[in-house]
């Protein structure tokens, strides 16, 4: 038996660890669903200004590594639609047999990932792939602009820079020396006055780099509002650049000071400004763009479910994500119960905290989770109050135990009615109460009333305090959503909990409470031993 | 660190008690022999081990109607749950009072009068499992009331003291006497404020006393010195305790013994999970003694020989 325990414990720990490694390393499954920061509802409505136009086009976001698009909806009854997804961008075109006079629209749900490129190394590329070459096209400049740019080039470039350094130097200059101001719309203004609109700044950057044979493009994007920003009725497109270094496109924003990164509040609508210059010009088309938050800070379980099922492995079949959503919800809560039991075992066997029975603290925690901590505590303490009051009043009637407990139960039902009428539950932020309180009461009140009789008020209150503290601590643990989703995604972790439980079960050392209990004895024994 | 000191002094903790001594030495199937006082009594009578006489066993609320007839011939008795613990639910009736109308009431050991109705309520509480270890329906026992041995006259208040002996594999390892106080409501229950006085195994003399873990020298209610009291029939007490191991087959056992003025020591009850407060009463740790038995005690000894071994080897 002695040798068996370490083996069992080792097995209980190694089995889930092995599974986790297997799932993540060999099956390439994520151990947790992606945490979704924000999902956006993107919407653009437009109509051509020219009443005789039979087509109208508008850039739409294109899915990619940093951008997920779902629920695409195109509106425009009676018109054909065509989406041109060239390698970098997408443009949606409505085609009518008759002129388009009514509004058409495109909407989609969009999930943006931020881009952060930590290391940008030297780049001395000479030959570029075909699809990149168009971004090398030299600008045709006005003579005075060209003159000014040459002057600038002489001032900031030394002539021996690699392409990454050129991109960086031009970025620093435009970012710091040219102030963003939408009123100044020409290169001349930008270079002479030091002010320029986002588009001008993006253009200047593009000119400077292309003159040095660095592929660069102007991207059109939306700057999405922050959580506390006032809602914008009409959103404007803004502009930045992407530069091709080390065989990849690197985001550069000379307006907001980002080099090699793009936060997830920027939604790229198109990656080649020259191509859409006409279709986004308000002279040609009337349009409104909107983007509102759809989901905030949630685990993307739906996506994960798809991922799990798509992999088609053995785990796809035993994954809880296959279950219907309401069953999933139940499991999310109950899978944490063993964790609560672990806390309870620690508290009782290692710390020596007294509690009412084994399950009362866990039930209480689940109750807190079902309602709210405030309401749960309020209700529980009210029941305790009823239990004490009952002892004072019903003791004199000499009732048999079962009818007596039934009276308490009835009083609890009355309490529930009172709660419903006064709206106390809502005040504590608890939405529904359900049958759970009654279960708790039946489990708890019997033990409580016996203990009050047998061990006196002081001991009972100690135990009550222990129960409440353990429940609140466990509740704190249950509130960590990552933990909940981790166990839900990888239920094999329960074996690990069992491993811990075996270890606690084998613990023969002192409880922390015995330190208090035997403190006096140790002191006297020390005195006797002359220590 | 205090835990290290506790280990050095051989103090036994709860986890260790359960894991090393109770789970390993006590077979669960033997538990009912000690938890159920009806079963204990039957076993004791078969083994010729003296226990208080059980007058009545009441297992259903229906029997309570007949309570007046049933108690009419008794002059004193104790009501206790068959599956109780820690002395809870026990009521001592010192006198059965009949008035001129034939109504019966009861005088308790603490002097209070209980009506027939109150006694019935108490018994029905026992039957419905209010005091049972598992909370299941229980049987109430009306048992012979034990009188106090005169030796304890000055160091007791209200109730009967009992001697607790911890027996490991049939060898007595530690002992104390539990003396009721006013605060413990006449019960010999340390949790409720009774005195625990450690007893020297060799001589049977009290050496140290505590209330709620605090050392006391005199009884708080009577003022008499608590140490130096020698328990009468000490060898018999230890042998009786040692025999209980053979009787119920539990390796780690608490035996509660009362001294009667006329019958000598008799078994009051047995406990498969005896508490650890005995260490505080004795100002000694249990561990070295238990380990000594497990390591050095020879097997196949009679109860008398085991007592002799303990007295010779346990200091």
What descriptive keywords fit this protein?
heterodimer; A: 531 residues; alpha+beta; five-stranded antiparallel beta sheet; four-stranded antiparallel beta sheet; 20 helices; 16 strands; 19% strand; elongated; B: 315 residues; seven-stranded antiparallel beta sheet; six-stranded antiparallel beta sheet; 13 strands; 30% helix
Helix/strand order of chain B: HHHHEHEEEEHEEEEEEHEEHHH
Count of strand segments of chain A: 16
If you average the pLDDT of chain A, what whole number results? 85
Total of helices of chain B:
10
Most strands sheet of chain B: 7 strands, antiparallel
Strands ordered across the widest β-sheet of chain A: 13-12-11-10-15
Q: Biggest interface and which pair forms it? A: A-B, 33 and 36 residues
Distance N terminus to C terminus of chain B? 26 Å
What is the helix fraction of residues of chain B, given as a range? 25-40%
Continuous helix count of chain A: 20
**Whole-number radius of gyration of chain A?**
34 Å
C-alpha end-to-end distance of chain A = 40 Å
> What proportion of the residues of chain A form beta strands (DSSP E)?
15-25%
Biggest sheet of chain A, in brief? Answer: 5 strands, antiparallel
Which secondary-structure class do the elements of chain A indicate? alpha+beta
Portion in strands of chain B: 15-25%
The parts of chain B where pLDDT drops under 50 for at least 5 residues are none
Oligomeric state, counting identical vs distinct chains: heterodimer
The number of strands of chain B is 13
Characterization of the model:
The complex is a heterodimer of chains A (531) and B (315). With 531 residues, chain A is α+β, with helices and mostly antiparallel strands. Helix content of chain A is 50%, strand content 19%. Chain A has helices spanning 4-26, 130-133, 143-156, 163-177, 187-192, 198-211, 273-276, 301-311, 314-318, 325-334, 337-351, 360-370, 373-394, 401-422, 424-427, 436-478, 481-489, 493-506, 512-517, 519-529, and strands at residues 35-48, 55-60, 67-75, 80-85, 90-95, 104-112, 115-116, 179-180, 195-196, 216-223, 237-245, 248-253, 258-259, 261-262, 266-270, 285-299. Chain A is elongated. The mean pLDDT of chain A is 85. Chain B is built from ten helices and 13 strands. The two termini of chain B are 26 Å apart. The model of chain B has no long low-confidence stretch (mean pLDDT 90). The chains are: A alpha+beta (531), B alpha+beta (315). Chains A and B meet through helix 16, helix 19 and helix 20 of A and helix 1, helix 2, helix 6 and strand 11 of B.
């Amino acid at each position: 038996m002695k040798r068996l325990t370490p083996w069992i414990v080792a097995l209980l720990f190694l089995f889930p660890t092995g599974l986790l490694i297997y799932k993540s390393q060999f099956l390439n499954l994520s151990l947790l669903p992606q945490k979704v920061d924000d999902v956006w509802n993107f919407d653009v409505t437009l109509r051509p200004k020219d009443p005789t136009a039979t087509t109208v086009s508008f850039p739409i976001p294109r899915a990619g590594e940093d951008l997920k698009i779902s629920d695409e909806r195109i509106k425009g009854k009676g018109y054909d639609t065509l989406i041109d997804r060239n390698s970098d961008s997408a443009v949606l075109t409505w085609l009518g047999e008759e002129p388009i006079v009514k509004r058409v629209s495109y909407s989609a749900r969009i999930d943006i990932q931020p881009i952060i490129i930590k290391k940008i190394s030297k780049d001395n590329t000479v030959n570029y792939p075909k699809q990149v070459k168009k971004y090398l096209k030299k600008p045709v400049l006005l003579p005075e602009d060209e003159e000014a740019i040459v002057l600038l080039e002489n001032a900031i470039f030394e002539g021996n820079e690699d392409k990454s350094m050129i991109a960086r130097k031009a970025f620093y200059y435009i970012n710091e020396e040219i102030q963003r101001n939408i009123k100044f719309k020409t290169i001349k203004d930008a270079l002479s006055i030091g002010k320029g609109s986002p588009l001008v700044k993006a253009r200047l950057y593009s000119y400077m780099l292309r003159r040095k044979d660095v592929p660069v493009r102007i991207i059109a994007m939306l700057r999405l509002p922050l959580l506390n920003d006032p809602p914008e009725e009409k959103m404007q497109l803004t502009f930045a650049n992407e530069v091709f270094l080390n065989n990849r496109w690197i985001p550069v924003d000379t307006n907001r000071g980002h080099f090699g990164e793009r936060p997830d509040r920027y939604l790229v609508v198109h990656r080649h400004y020259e191509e859409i210059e006409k279709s986004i010009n308000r002279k040609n088309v009337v349009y409104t763009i909107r983007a509102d938050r759809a989901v905030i800070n949630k685990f993307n379980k739906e996506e994960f479910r798809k991922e799990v099922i798509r992999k088609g492995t053995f785990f796809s079949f035993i994954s809880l994500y296959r279950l219907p959503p309401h069953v999933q919800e139940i499991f999310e809560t109950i899978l944490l119960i063993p964790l609560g039991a672990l806390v309870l075992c620690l508290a009782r066997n290692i710390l020596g905290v007294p509690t009412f029975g084994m399950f009362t603290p866990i039930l209480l925690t689940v109750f807190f989770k079902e309602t709210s901590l405030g309401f749960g505590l309020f209700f529980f303490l009210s029941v305790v109050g009823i239990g004490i009051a009952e002892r004072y009043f019903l003791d004199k009637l000499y009732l048999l135990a079962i009818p007596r407990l039934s009276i308490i139960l009835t009083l609890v039902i009355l309490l529930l009615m009172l709660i419903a009428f006064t709206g106390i539950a809502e005040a504590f932020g608890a939405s529904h109460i359900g049958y759970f309180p009654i279960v708790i009461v039946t489990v708890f009140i019997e033990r409580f009333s016996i203990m009050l009789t047998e061990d006196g008020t002081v001991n009972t209150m100690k135990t009550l305090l222990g129960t409440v503290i353990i429940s609140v601590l466990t509740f704190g643990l249950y509130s960590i959503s990552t933990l909940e989703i981790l166990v839900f995604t990888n239920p094999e972790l329960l074996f690990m909990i069992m491993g811990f439980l075996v270890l606690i079960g084998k613990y023969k050392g002192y409880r922390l409470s015995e330190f208090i209990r035997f403190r006096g004895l140790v002191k006297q024994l020390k005195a006797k031993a002359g220590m | 660190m205090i835990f290290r000191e506790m280990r050095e002094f051989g103090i036994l903790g709860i986890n260790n008690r359960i894991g090393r001594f109770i789970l390993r030495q006590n077979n669960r199937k033997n538990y009912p022999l000690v938890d159920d006082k009806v079963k204990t009594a039957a076993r004791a009578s078969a083994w010729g081990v003296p226990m208080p006489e059980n007058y009545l066993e009441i297992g259903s609320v229906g029997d309570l109607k007949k309570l007046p007839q049933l108690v009419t011939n008794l002059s004193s008795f104790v009501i206790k749950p068959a599956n109780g613990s820690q002395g809870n639910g026990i009521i001592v009736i010192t006198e059965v009072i009949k008035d001129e109308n034939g109504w019966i009431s009861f005088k308790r050991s603490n002097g209070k009068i209980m009506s027939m109705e109150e006694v019935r309520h108490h018994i029905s509480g026992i039957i419905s499992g209010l005091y049972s270890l598992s909370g299941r329906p229980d049987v109430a026992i009306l048992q012979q009331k034990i009188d106090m041995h005169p030796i304890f006259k000055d160091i007791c208040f209200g109730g009967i003291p009992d001697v607790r002996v911890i027996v490991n594999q049939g060898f007595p390892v530690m002992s104390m006497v539990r003396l009721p106080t006013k605060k413990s409501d006449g019960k010999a229950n340390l949790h409720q404020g009774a005195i625990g006085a450690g007893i020297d195994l060799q001589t049977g003399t009290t050496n140290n006393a505590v209330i709620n873990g605090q050392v006391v020298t005199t009884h708080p209610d009577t003022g008499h010195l608590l140490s130096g009291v020698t328990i009468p029939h000490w060898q018999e007490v230890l042998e009786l305790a040692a025999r209980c191991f053979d009787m119920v087959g539990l390796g780690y056992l608490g035996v509660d013994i009362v001294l009667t003025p006329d019958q000598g020591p008799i078994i009051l009850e047995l406990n498969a999970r005896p508490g650890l407060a005995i260490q505080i009463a004795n100002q000694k740790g249990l561990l070295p003694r238990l380990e000594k038995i497990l390591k050095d005690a020879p097997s196949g000894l009679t109860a008398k020989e085991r007592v002799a071994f303990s007295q010779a080897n346990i200091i």
